[in-house]
Amino acid sequence: MAEHRPAAATGSGDAPLSARLAAFATDARDHGLPDEVAASVRQRILDILGICVAAARLDTSRAVVQHVADQGGAAQSSAVTLSDRVPASQAAFVNGVLAHSLDYDDTHLPSILHPSASVVPAALATAELARSGGAALQAAVAAGLEVTVRLGMAGYDRDAGNSLFFERGQHATSICGAIGAAAASALLLGLDTDGVDDAIGIAVSMASGLLEANRTGGTVKRLHCGWAAHAGVSAAQLASRGITGPPTVLEGRFGFYQGFLDGEFHPEEITDGLGDTWSVPDIHFKPYPANHFTHTGIDGAVRLRERGIGPDDVAALRLGVAAPTVRTIGEPLDVKRTPDTGYQAQFSGPYTIAAALLGGSGLALGLDDFTDELARDPQRRALMAKVDVVADPRCDERYPDELPGVLTATLTNGDEVVEEVWANRGGPSRPLDADELATKFRDNALRGLDGDAVAIIEDQVFGLGQVGDLGPVMAALRSSHG
Predict the structure, then answer these.
(1) CA max distance for the chain
(2) Packed helices 471-479 and 35-55: angle between N→C axes, nearest 10 degrees
(3) Under DSSP, is residue 392 helix (H, G, I), strand (E, B) or coil?
(4) Confidence of residue 445 (pLDDT cuts 50, 70, 90)
(5) By CB atoms within 10 Å of each CB, which of 8, 65, 143, 185 scores lowest?
(6) What is the CATH number of the domain that holds 122?
C-alpha cells in the first residue's frame, strides 16, 4: 500500500486536484452510483465488448494479439480471441486496441474524448484479476469515465470552442484515458484514496498519443487506447506495491497540464460539481463506425437518398462543418477523396457521404461499408471526386457541443438541395434507444461469437449490479474468433 498522504490530500476543497479525484472515485465505489449513471455504464460496457469482438478480424488486431501471445507471463485476465489468460495489463492492451480500432466507440462532447475505449478494457482486466463482482466493476468504470472526461474538459477552451490538446495534435482520448483507467483499476484492486491518488500520479507519466495518423495515414492510432488501458492497469498495480506519485501531479509546475498544455487549463472543470453532477450519461454513442466528425454528413446524405436523389443526380456535393474538423475529414482533400483502405475511409468526409448516398448497412452505415475494396471502388471514387469539405460558420456556432453538418447537393438539372443536421444521433438530444444499442451490440458481437455467447454477455452485463462472478463473460470473450 502507498504511503499515507498528508491531511491536505483527503479530498477537501484545498486538496490537490488528483487527491480530490481520488476521493471522488473511492466514494463512488464505497457508496454507490445514481441509477442513471449505473444504467449508462452497463450500456457502455456492452457497447465496448461488441466492438472488441467485431474488431478482432482486423490485421492490426491480429498483430497485437500475436504480440501479446509472444510475451507470455502470468495467466491473469482474458483478451478477445486469446484462449489462454495473459497478464492483466496485456489483456487490457489487447482489448483497448480492439475497442478503438473500428472508430465505433463512444464520444464525449465538447471535449472530443472517447472515454470508454480505455477505461472499460482496463477495468475488465483488473476486475478479473481481483475477482471482483459486477457492482464493483460498474462503479469503477463510472468513476474512471468521469475522471477521464473531467481531465479532458479542463483542457477545453470554451472561448475558442476547441480542445487545447487537439490544437497541439495530442490525442486527449489516450492521454486522459490512461489516468481514468488507472483510477478505475486502482478501485478494483481495493486501494484506498491515497492509493488511487498514487495510481493517478503514476499514470500521468505514462500518458501519450499523437493524432498525425488521422491526417495522413498509419494505423498507430488504433494502439492508443490499448496503451492507455495498459498504462492504467500497470499504474494501479505499481501503486498497490508502494510506488507513489507526486501530490500535485496535475496542477504542479512540472505537472500534467504544464507538460501537455503549457499550464493553460481550467481546474474548475475538474472540481465543480464533482460527485454531484455526472458527465457519464451524456457521452454520445456512435451509430456509425467512422470518425464522429463525419456523422452528420452521413445523416445528410441519407436524407438526400430518402428524397430520391441518387449518385447519378448529383453534379457536386459540399459538406459544411465546423472549421476545426475540416483538417481531420477534409484535408488533404486529394487524400480524403482517394482513401486506400477502409480505415482511411473512416476519416474521410467524401467517402462517408458517398457510401451513405449509395446506401449502406447497419443503422445507415455499418462495418461492412468500410472495407479496403470499397474504399477503392471506382463508383465511390467518382462520387468522392464531387465532394468538397468546407468550414461553415453556422456549424462553428454549435461546435463542439454538437458536430453539425450542412450538406448541399448541386444536381445535374441545376437545382440545389440542402440538408442541415445540427445534432448528432446517439447524443442526449437524439439518443439511440435500447433496441438500437442492442442491435449494434449483436451486429458486432455475432461477427466473432456464437449466439449463446452473445446471449450470455448481454444477460450478464444488463444485470451487472447483481452479478457476483464475471467468469462467464470473460470465457465468452476468450471464445471469440477473429
Answers:
(1) 75
(2) 20
(3) coil
(4) very high
(5) 8
(6) 1.10.4100.10
> Measured between alpha carbons, how far is 126 from 108 in angstroms, rounded to an integer?
24
* Dihedral sign of CA atoms 441, 95, 269, 324 in order: negative
* Confidence at residue 215, expressed as pLDDT on a 0 to 100 scale: 75
Residue pair 214/326 in contact by the 8 Å Cβ criterion: no
The C-alpha atoms of residue 465 and residue 104 are separated, in whole angstroms, by 25
Query: 234: Cβ–Cβ under 8 A, 6 or more apart, which residues?
Result: 89, 206
Q: How far apart are CA 37 and CA 187, in angstroms?
A: 17
Domain enclosing residue 379, as ranges: 292-421
Number of other residues whose CB lies within 10 A of the CB of residue 316: 14
Task: Report how far apart, in Å, the C-alpha atoms of 420 and of each of 302, 346, 388, 397, 407 are.
Answer: 12, 21, 16, 14, 6
Do the beta carbons of residue 34 and residue 142 sit within 8 Å?
no
Is 240 in the same domain as 338?
no
Give the C-alpha separation, 176 to 145, whole Å: 10
Element (H, E) at 192: none
Long-range contacts of 156-163 (CB under 8 A, 24+ apart): 156/110, 156/111, 156/266, 156/269, 157/264, 158/266, 161/110, 161/322, 161/324, 161/396, 161/399, 161/400, 162/324, 162/400, 163/110, 163/111, 163/112, 163/400
In this structure, the answer to whether residues 281 and 192 fall within a common structural domain is yes
Question: Does the global pTM surpass 0.70?
Answer: yes
d(CA 91, CA 78): 6
Reading the block at residue 435, the C-alpha cell is: 433496441
101-110 residue pLDDT tens: 998 999 999 9
DSSP H helices, 155-267, are 164-167, 172-188, 193-204, 212-216, 221-240, 256-261
d(CA 316, CA 234): 51
283: Cβ contacts below 8 Å, ≥ 6 apart: 40, 44, 106, 107, 108, 115, 116, 145, 149
Residue 241 lies inside a defined structural domain of this protein = yes
Quote the cell numbers at residue 97.
Answer: 486496441
